[in-house]
Design goal:
This protein is α/β, with parallel strands linked by helices. The chain folds into two domains: 178 residues, UDP N-Acetylglucosamine Acyltransferase, domain 1 (3 Solenoid), CATH 2.160.10; 49 residues, no CATH class. Helix content is 34%, strand content 14%. The protein is built from five helices and 15 strands. The strands form three sheets. A six-stranded mixed beta sheet has the order 3-6-9-12-14-15. Helix 3 runs antiparallel to helix 4. The relative contact order is 0.08.
Length: 246
């Protein structure tokens, strides 16, 4: 009976994973659930993980890790069978995704290719990130250590995050810096990774404004000619359409 219950639970979880892929992947528009189950590598990795995790909970030796190893070779996605993953996880493309042993992922989380939920040392115990519900993590982002990513947060592509992230916050950069987009968090699972703020340029602009104020003060005291204020431009372009379709 325990085996039947575990099978029913895994089947229910995989069904939710398939629905998550259908809802959040534009490429799944008009595609049947059976086709998604048969051809989406993220779904294959999650199916294998759900089975391996159930076997690990049942204390089955060797097979959970062996299944994880075969899945990594087949899909390019490595999920440790001891990781804790909630409902409705969507892994888009998935190549290079790594989820460590003590990682915890909540419900309705989206991971893009190249995401790492990894550790930072050789210590045992809790050493991987905890990702709460409704979080989106962009391509190539690295989340390292026993940090917590708050509910509804968004991690920009190629960010390196080593500290806790507050809920409903967008993080970009290396190391990751919390930022806001137009004073509001981005809604939904999609994120416009192109038009995110540039925290480095903003810091330089603040310094430039401060220097300009000091120069004007000195110019007034010395009765000299005021000097033009230097313009600081962000390193990344902020023009163009929203790639998320908004």
């Amino acid at each position: 009976m325990a085996g039947v219950g575990a099978f029913a639970r895994v089947a229910k979880e995989v069904r939710r994973d398939v629905l998550a892929a259908r809802d959040r992947d534009p490429a799944a528009c008009g595609v049947s659930r059976m086709e998604i189950l048969a051809t989406w590598p993220g779904i294959h990795a999650l199916l294998a993980y759900r089975v391996a995790h159930a076997m690990m909970l049942a204390r089955v030796p060797l097979l959970p890790r062996l299944l994880s190893l075969l899945t990594r070779a087949f899909t390019g996605i490595e999920i440790h069978p001891a990781a804790e993953i909630g409902r409705g996880l969507f892994i888009d493309h998935g190549a290079g995704v790594v989820v460590g042993e003590t990682a915890e992922i909540g419900d309705n989380v989206t991971l893009y290719q190249g995401v790492t939920l990894g550790g930072t040392g050789f210590a045992t115990g809790k050493r991987h990130p905890t990702v709460q519900d409704n979080v989106t993590i962009g391509s190539g982002a690295k989340l390292l250590g026993p940090i917590t990513i708050g509910h509804g947060a968004k991690i920009g592509a190629n960010s390196v995050v080593v500290t806790d992230v507050p809920p409903n916050c967008t993080v970009v950069g290396n190391p990751g810096h919390p930022v806001r987009v137009d004073g509001q968090r981005v809604e939904g699972p999609d994120a416009d990774w192109i038009h995110l703020p540039d925290p480095i340029a903003e810091a330089i602009q603040a310094l430039s404004a401060r220097i300009a104020t000091l120069e004007r003060t000195i110019s007034e005291l010395s009765e000299g000619e005021p000097q033009p204020v230097a313009e600081v431009r962000p390193l990344r372009t902020v023009k163009g359409p929203n790639p998320a379709g908004g």
